[in-house]
Amino acid sequence: MSDLLLPAEPTQRGIARELYALAAEQPIISPHGHVDPGLLADDAPFPDPARLIIVPDHYVTRMLLSQGIPPAELGVPARDGTRTATDGRTIWRRFAEHWHLFRGTPSRLWLERTFETVFGVTDRLGPDTADAIYDRISASLDTPEFRPRALFERFNIEVLATTESPLDDLSRHAKLAEDGWGGPGGRVITTFRPDNVVDMEFEDWAGNVARLGEITGEDTGTYRGYLHALRARRRDFIAAGATSTDHGHLTARTLLLTPVEAAALYARGLSGRATPADAEAFRAHMLVEMARMSIEDGLVMQLHPGAFRNHNRWLYDTHGRDVGGDVPHAVEFVHGLKPLLDAYGNDPRLRLVLFTLDEDTFTRELAPLAGGYAALYLGAPWWFLDSPEVMRRFREAVTETAGFYNTSGFVDDTRAFCSIPVRHDVARRIDAGFLARLVAEHRLPLDEAAETIVDLAYRLPKKIFKIGEKL
Questions:
Q1: Whole-angstrom Cα distance, residue 282 to residue 222?
Q2: Which pathway does the record list (predicted)?
């Protein structure tokens, strides 16, 4: 067994090995991610290595852009249909030439572990080895053992949640259900992500709301009809296996408006007269509405605030959303969440999992909040923070106040299917090291640490995200 990321101190390392061995054998629960459900619905062979590993990975393309290599040279599609690089080997060579840029980054860790554990590649990537590694991965992708469903089995994934908007027809999840892979209690489930119909500043928000009405048969020209349409879509998502919602707001602000006030804001938005302050107020109000709906239908809420979306405007204008142009910013939770928590924070029917891109809030705000409200849980370090260093700091920052059992377990939040087992493995190794230190310092008995690491790896995410439960 590799000692990767386990403590260097010999006593702690020995304990961590025992704990990691327990975690390593647990199935993967992936309750939040962005893998295309069509990947598993179609079960078609993966494309070439570049399109599997480089083109969709904004961690990779973002780093290369920072060194002057435009995404078009890496095969990232352009919004206007302009031709971009298409030859997988050429893209791969370009990537390998700049492999040194990833020294010390979690991207290098994930990629090297993926090369080794998924494809059996142990040679170090570089210009001299690029073609050989490309050929090795390409040859693997041509075999039935590397089809998506076969890898799903090999990765020991028990449940994988994808993320769809209310405008999605859920046809790919219907196909998965037909094949015995999806639906309530299925192996691949959906997640309700309503940002594009809740955020007035989202591109073509009014058009999205109109389409929501067409899909549901509700009159979304009125605020009342809009709420009915959202409830209807939530029911559709539950029927497709959803156990949670996801909200990617700019801030964690919540606001209690009267129906009359909310309707007036909504009307201003539809007419194109809403100000940025109106848009933020409506987002804040809708978080409270979504909490109400979660109490009604049982869906777990996830809140992922703090991303300044499309900060790199040129990148967004050229290539669109989710290609590496977002930047974290500070988020305030204590005052922002208070209206929602005053209303529902002690209601055991609500389950709200909080994430942050601002690790300064771990100790000061998030751990005390999760340690003081029945409805709150802390999500794992996410996105810009899902590195070994921050994972360690997270446990150190929150455990004293929130304990282990007000945290929700690891979420991989990835579009890169082949990196899922690697990311979960990294989290399990970090937790093994943290628990080993507690044992070595005589702060926790070994048998309790053993129970805790299995809870963190498997039982907690399954319980908190209601995986396998009937809503």
A1: 15
A2: Carbohydrate metabolism; pentose and glucuronate interconversion
Strands 300-303 and 327-328: unpaired
Q: What pLDDT, on the 0 to 100 scale, is given for residue 1?
A: 61
Q: What is the DSSP letter of 74?
A: G
Residue 311 backbone dihedrals phi, psi, to 5 degrees: -60, -40
Q: Rounded to an integer, what distance in angstroms lies between the CA atom of residue 57 and that of residue 35?
A: 11
Positive or negative, the CA dihedral 126, 132, 136, 142 is: positive
- As a dihedral over the C-alpha atoms of residue 54, residue 71, residue 48, residue 131, rounded to 10 degrees, the angle is -80
Distance CA 150, CA 141 (A): 11
- The pairing of strands 307-308 and 327-328 is antiparallel
Distance of CA 340 to the CA centre of its chain: 23
- For residue 332, give the amino acid letter: E
> Tokens for 136?
């090795």
CB burial of residue 420 (10 Å; 0-12, 13-18, 19+): buried
Give CA–CA dist 46/52, Å, rounded: 7
Q: Residues 92, 455: contact at Cβ < 8 Å?
A: no
| pLDDT for the residue 77 | 93
Closest CA to 190 of 245, 247, 145: 245
Q: Is 368 helix (H, G, I), strand (E, B) or coil?
A: helix
Give the separation between CA 307 and CA 331, rounded to whole angstroms: 9
- pTM given for the model: 0.96
189, 242 contact by CB (below 8 A): yes
Q: Is 466 left (phi over 0), alpha (psi -120 to 50) or beta?
A: left
Q: Which residues contact 153 (CB under 8 A, 6 or more apart)?
A: none
Kindly state the tokens that stand for 454.
């299995």
- In tens, the pLDDT along 132-160 reads 999 999 999 999 999 999 999 999 999 99
Spell out the residues 6+ positions from residue 283 whose beta carbon is closer than 8 angstroms to its own. 198, 199, 200, 249, 250, 251, 253
What residue type is 401 in one-letter code? T
